[in-house]
């Protein structure tokens, strides 16, 4: 495109970044301010910093447990949905399955359900139907991983389909001709080529699972509670502990931020991948 | 060479999981929607009610009003997100120092949980003590009160949603723009086409599928928005931001109106599916012959 | 990401090879090409829409919902057969 | 929060010292009675308020040490707590052995037979009865959890929603003089609604004139959260003589004046207009305030007086990490219309909301015996004083006389004395099994009144009609 001096762009982006970052900055301000000072004339500049909320959050073993659950559930769910989604997309792309467009659309509709009303049936299914003797899926990590599939699997399929479609079919055909098994074709030919797309899917499904609140709040009690449900403990009739909530939020940002910056490069690459092929 | 059986095997995990965690709950909701059921009514058990709930829904002013504000919310939020997202994606097309850094910053809102987004915006917009009303008051003398002004609350929820989700749109559109072949643009420039003409006749048609796909995902997610709004306004002032997700939440959680709430959900899901299906077949499917 | 639909048409072109066995698709009166499942889906959509509108506007006039159901069923039969 | 932890620790020490001394002879009982249930894990759900956190952090570990029964308490938000307990009991899954019952939901639970009759259960199993537990020791608040004389919940917190005012402002000579000059009488805590309004108007104007962040009254007037509905029907309307939300259970649950109810009576309309005026002169955040924001507003020194939930009144008065007005809060009875005090004394009416909760035992529980032991444990007199200091709440009559509670009472400016002496004038929510349902049905209209979309008179008429409609469709109103 046109060669111009880059500085207007930099200026523009500094401005946009300011707008993007301001609420996050404000989250930080909340986390280091006593609540009664939040209820006074606000000031953009931080007056003084009080780390008490952070020390409390760090010193709280329950929250560490929640953090662990969040990490395991969202990672497990991201891997599961991406894998299943990848298989499904491959099947939709390479096989002539009857009604596959209908199946494709039908899988997507799973994401459209308003969550509040599905909590009751999910609760009943998890406690009464999907059980082996005394073991039920309620309040287990595996249960949450499976439940999150309802909104993440459609997303994974929606995202991965163009990527898989974008891998030239000739490549697998050639492999078949060489006598490779279908399984080998998937894992050794198609999979490596899809890697950027898979990375994007992995990361976004991870983020969706990491951020989910309503389902986790209802379907976990003690063992599988996630950080977002931990937050709700601080909204009470005797006062909302904004500071603690904000401090926890800052903590929830950290793992997400690390994961995001590491794969940032892949995201755009992954998104771009399929399109470039076309 | 390869059998369809293998294809079905690959699809099976998806179908099984979605059947047990998506379809079965849905069927249960449909079943409940034909019943009158409130565990704290004089008769706390499920009473078969035929289509009674649906008869009630079509005259239910609160529900229809909620549907109306939801549609308005989704329309403005998604429209703004797509426009802003496109402009930002376009701005990422040039090379400039620190591009990757800015891109990372721009994606940050995505990774904040909706419930936290709601909390932040609540504290930023609380009348008189939030930073936004304060700045507006001291700079232009405008009194922003999302507890009193329906319009203000509505707009703030849209701004919040735009802040939260535009990065997703930007990312997808960057991908689309990067993949555009250079030839048509060069040709057009040689022909002396203006910027606007190039956008309208070349860029837009080429990125249209990407835009539609983004709209599709945003539409689905915006229609079921709950956490943020519940935290920010609780659906108020009045019913100004009582979007359908919030409405259903209030109907089935505190009011324990399971039967009627299920019926509303079924209608909402129906409308969502139809809207998305029309969008999908209308915009995407005709571009290729359908096979099955 | 979502936007991947941008190239959904292109890759499909790749699919358009000899491998795809030609499935007999009759073209009905619907503006898009459909299989029986699509037509069933369309019928259900129409049936629900009709019922809801009927509840709102026609039932208060005294006409039973069964009339709507019969019409919808007839329509469905027609769509599935001829769509 | 931090103070809670600190308090928790000191209190733990106190509780261990006094508690162990008092209950030393009793340890044998707990160990013996719990013998068959050793290793059982009890699950409880509650809201994460200071009293609940004290159970979680102090009482449950103590209990485990003595009995070998582990108690896991899940703390969550108000909405979630109800939803989870109800889903569990409704579906009969038996996840929870102990559920928090707020005073206003107990009737719904009783109507569904969700709860175990604790009195009867202990009678049937005398080997589980602790000599230190006696349900006669509870304050009159326990009556809300009784049906036919049997107890269904062990009270664990109880508060009054009271009139708080700023002693520093009310005693400021300059302000006093200005008030006298403007109104012609002395500035003192109000006893009538007119006085209250006068003071509120004065302070809002004073704040404006002196460019202070100060207003004359609080208002819990959120336009999208039931907190505003509660403030009006539980704390404002009764002081005007409209009791039990204006719904008359004896007249086929009538709400409209036409059918014999009082929800849209002239008194209710007067109350609403009085309150709306206060809302208008309250700090602007009131339109977004639930109970917790009202407390924070008051703690931030932004209001000269207001109705504040008792559970917050205590930390506002004592906790310097959360409040700017510690030591400056005066407590008084809510302002009343003529005749209301007589009604309250005769038991016909009440002057405000007696809020609180208890721990109940769901019938679906799979560990009823162990849960009973735990409920007895938290109901004993011995554990109360430490608990009352850590999380100001009193449920046993003996607690008032404990030395540490008396000290605390002085620090709280006589809050406990008030609870003890005036508690009987307050009342909990009316005994309706349709609590949340009627609230949710009418709340949207109430929010419309608050935003001015509909007038107060017309709005109350609509609400009363809507309440009757909801009661009819629920099947209570025939």
Record keyword descriptors for this entry.
heterotetramer, A: 278 residues, mainly alpha, MetI-like fold, two-stranded antiparallel ribbon, globular, disordered C terminus, C: 83 residues, disordered N terminus
Q: What can you tell me about this protein's structure?
A:
The complex is a heterotetramer of chains A (278), B (292), C (83) and D (478). Chain A has 278 residues and is mainly α. Chain A is built from twelve helices and four strands; from the N terminus they run ααααααββαααααββα. Chain A has a single domain, classed as MetI-like (MetI-like fold). Helix content of chain A is 75%, strand content 3%. In chain A, the strands form two sheets. In chain A, strands 1-2 form a two-stranded antiparallel ribbon. In chain A, strands 3-4 form a two-stranded antiparallel ribbon. In chain A, a hairpin with a 2-residue loop joins strand 1 and strand 2. In chain A, helix 8 packs antiparallel against helix 9. The model of chain A is unreliable at 272-278 (pLDDT under 50). The two termini of chain B are 20 Å apart. Chain B contains twelve helices and two strands, in the order αββααααααααααα. Chain B has 292 residues and is mainly alpha-helical. Chain D has two domains: 2-159 and 356-416, D-Maltodextrin-Binding Protein, domain 2; 160-346, D-Maltodextrin-Binding Protein, domain 2 (3-Layer(aba) Sandwich). In chain D, the strands form two sheets. In chain D, strands 1, 2, 3, 6, 7, 8 and 9 form a seven-stranded mixed β-sheet that branches. The N and C termini of chain D lie far apart (49 Å). Classes of the chains: A mainly alpha (278), B mainly alpha (292), C mainly alpha (83), D alpha+beta (478). Chains in contact: A-B, A-C, A-D, B-C, B-D.
Q: What is the count of β-strands of chain D? A: 9
What is the string of helix and strand elements of chain D?
HHEHEHEHHEEEHHHHHHEHEHEHHHHHH
CATH topology category name of the largest domain in chain D: D-Maltodextrin-Binding Protein, domain 2
CATH architecture of chain A: Orthogonal Bundle
Strand order of the largest sheet of chain A: 1-2
State the domain count of chain A. 1
Concise structural overview:
The complex is a heterotetramer of chains A (278), B (292), C (83) and D (478). Chain B is mainly α.
């Amino acid at each position: 495109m046109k060669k111009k001096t880059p500085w207007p762009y930099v200026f523009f982006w500094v401005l946009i970044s300011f707008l993007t970052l301001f609420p996050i900055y404000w989250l930080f301000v909340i986390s280091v301010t006593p609540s009664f000072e939040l209820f006074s004339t606000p000031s953009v500049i931080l007056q003084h910093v009080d780390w008490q909320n952070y020390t409390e959050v760090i010193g709280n073993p329950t929250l560490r447990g929640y953090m662990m659950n969040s990490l395991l559930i969202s990672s497990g769910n991201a891997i599961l949905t991406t894998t299943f989604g990848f298989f499904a997309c491959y099947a939709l792309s390479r096989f002539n399955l009857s009604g596959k467009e209908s199946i494709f659309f039908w899988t997507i509709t799973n994401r459209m359900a308003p969550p509040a009303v599905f909590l009751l049936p999910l609760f009943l299914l998890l406690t009464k139907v999907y059980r082996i003797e005394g073991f039920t899926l309620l309040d287990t990590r595996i249960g949450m991983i499976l439940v999150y599939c309802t909104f993440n699997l459609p997303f994974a399929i929606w995202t991965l389909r163009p990527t898989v479609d974008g891998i030239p079919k000739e490549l697998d055909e050639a492999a078949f001709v060489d006598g490779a098994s279908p399984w080998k074709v998937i894992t050794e030919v198609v999979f490596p080529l899809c890697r950027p797309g898979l990375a994007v899917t992995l990361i976004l499904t991870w983020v969706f699972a990491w951020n989910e609140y309503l389902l986790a709040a209802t379907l976990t009690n003690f063992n599988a509670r996630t950080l977002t449900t931990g937050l709700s403990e601080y909204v009470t009739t005797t006062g909302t502990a904004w500071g603690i909530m904000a401090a926890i939020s800052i903590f929830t940002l950290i793992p997400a931020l690390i994961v995001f910056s590491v794969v940032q490069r892949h995201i755009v690459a992954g998104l771009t991948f399929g399109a470039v092929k076309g | 060479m390869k059998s369809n059986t293998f294809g079905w095997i690959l699809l099976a995990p998806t179908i099984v999981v979605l059947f047990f965690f998506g379809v079965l709950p849905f069927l249960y909701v449909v079943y409940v929607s034909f019943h009158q059921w409130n565990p704290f009514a004089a008769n706390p058990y499920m009473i078969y009610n035929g289509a009674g709930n649906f008869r009630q829904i079509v005259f239910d002013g609160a529900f229809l009003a909620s549907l109306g504000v939801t549609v308005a919310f989704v329309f403005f939020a998604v429209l703004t997100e797509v426009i802003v997202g496109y402009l930002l994606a376009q701005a990422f097309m040039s090379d400039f120092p620190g591009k990757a850094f800015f891109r990372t910053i721009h994606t940050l809102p995505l990774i904040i949980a909706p419930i936290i987004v709601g909390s932040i915006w609540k504290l930023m917009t609380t009348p008189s003590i939030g930073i936004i009303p304060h700045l507006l008051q001291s700079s232009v003398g405008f009194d922003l009160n999302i507890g009193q002004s329906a319009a203000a609350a509505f707009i703030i929820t849209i701004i919040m949603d735009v802040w939260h989700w535009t990065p997703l749109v930007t990312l997808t559109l960057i991908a689309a723009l990067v993949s555009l072949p250079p030839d048509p643009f060069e040709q057009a420039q040689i022909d002396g086409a203006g910027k606007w003409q190039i956008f309208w006749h070349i860029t837009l048609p080429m990125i249209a599928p990407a835009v539609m796909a983004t709209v599709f995902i945003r539409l689905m997610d915006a229609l079921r928005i709950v956490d943020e709004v519940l935290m920010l306004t609780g659906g108020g002032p009045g019913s100004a931001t009582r979007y359908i997700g919030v409405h259903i939440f209030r109907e089935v959680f505190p009011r324990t109106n399971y039967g009627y709430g299920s019926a509303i959900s079924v209608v909402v899901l129906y409308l969502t599916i139809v809207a998305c299906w029309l969008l999908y077949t209308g915009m995407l499917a005709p571009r290729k012959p359908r096979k099955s | 990401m979502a936007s991947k639909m941008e190239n959904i048409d292109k890759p499909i072109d790749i699919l358009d090879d000899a491998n795809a066995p030609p499935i007999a698709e009759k073209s009905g009166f619907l503006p898009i090409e459909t299989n029986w499942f699509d037509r069933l889906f369309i019928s259900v959509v129409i049936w629900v829409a009709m019922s809801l509108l009927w509840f709102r506007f026609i039932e208060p006039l005294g006409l039973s919902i069964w009339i709507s159901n019969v019409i919808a069923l007839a329509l469905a039969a027609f769509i599935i057969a001829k769509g | 929060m931090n103070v809670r932890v600190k308090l928790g620790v000191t209190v733990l020490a106190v509780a261990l010292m006094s508690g162990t001394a008092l209950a030393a002879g009793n340890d044998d009982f707990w160990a013996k009675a719990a013998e068959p249930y050793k290793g059982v894990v009890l699950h409880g759900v509650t809201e994460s308020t200071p009293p609940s956190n004290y159970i979680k952090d102090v009482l449950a570990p103590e209990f485990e040490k003595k009995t070998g029964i582990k108690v896991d308490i899940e703390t969550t938000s108000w909405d979630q707590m109800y939803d989870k307990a109800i889903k569990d009991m409704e579906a009969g899954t038996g996840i929870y052995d102990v559920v928090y019952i707020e005073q206003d939901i107990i009737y719904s639970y009783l109507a569904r037979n969700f709860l175990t009759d604790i009195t009867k259960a202990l009678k049937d199993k005398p080997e589980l009865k602790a000599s230190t537990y006696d349900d006669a020791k509870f304050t009159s608040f326990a009556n809300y959890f009784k049906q036919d004389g049997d107890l269904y919940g062990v009270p664990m917190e109880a508060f009054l929603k009271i009139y708080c005012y700023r002693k520093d402002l009310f005693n400021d000579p300059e302000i006093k003089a200005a008030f006298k000059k403007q109104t012609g009488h002395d500035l003192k805590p109000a006893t009538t609604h007119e006085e209250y309004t006068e003071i509120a108007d004065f302070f809002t104007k004073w704040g404006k004139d002196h460019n202070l962040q100060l207003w004359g009254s609080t208002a819990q007037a959120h336009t999208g959260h039931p907190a505003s509905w509660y403030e009006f029907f539980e704390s404002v309307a009764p002081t005007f003589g409209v009791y039990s939300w204006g719904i008359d259970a004896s007249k086929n649950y009538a709400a409209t004046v036409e059918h014999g109810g009082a929800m849209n009576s002239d008194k209710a309309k007067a109350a609403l207009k009085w309150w709306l005026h206060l809302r208008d002169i309250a700090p602007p955040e009131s339109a977004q305030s639930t109970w917790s924001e009202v407390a924070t507003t008051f703690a931030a020194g932004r209001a000269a007086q207001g109705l504040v939930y008792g559970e917050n009144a205590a930390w506002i008065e004592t906790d310097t990490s959360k409040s700017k007005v510690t030591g400056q809060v005066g407590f008084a009875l809510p302002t009343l219309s003529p005749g209301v005090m007589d009604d309250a004394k005769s038991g016909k009416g009440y002057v405000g909301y007696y809020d609180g909760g208890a721990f109940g035992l769901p019938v679906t529980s799979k560990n009823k015996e162990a849960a009973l032991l735990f409920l007895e444990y938290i109901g004993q007199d011995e554990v109360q004083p430490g608990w009352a200091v850590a999380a100001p709440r009193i449920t046993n009559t003996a607690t008032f006389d404990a030395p540490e509670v008396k000290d605390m009472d002085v620090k709280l400016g006589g809050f406990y004395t008030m609870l003890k002496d005036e508690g009987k004038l307050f009342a909990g929510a009316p005994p309706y099994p349709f609590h949340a349902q009627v609230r949710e049905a009418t709340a949207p209209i109430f929010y419309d009144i608050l935003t001015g979309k509909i007038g107060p008179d017309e709005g109350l008429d609509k609400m009363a009609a809507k309440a009757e409609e909801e009661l009819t469709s629920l099947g209570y109103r025939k």
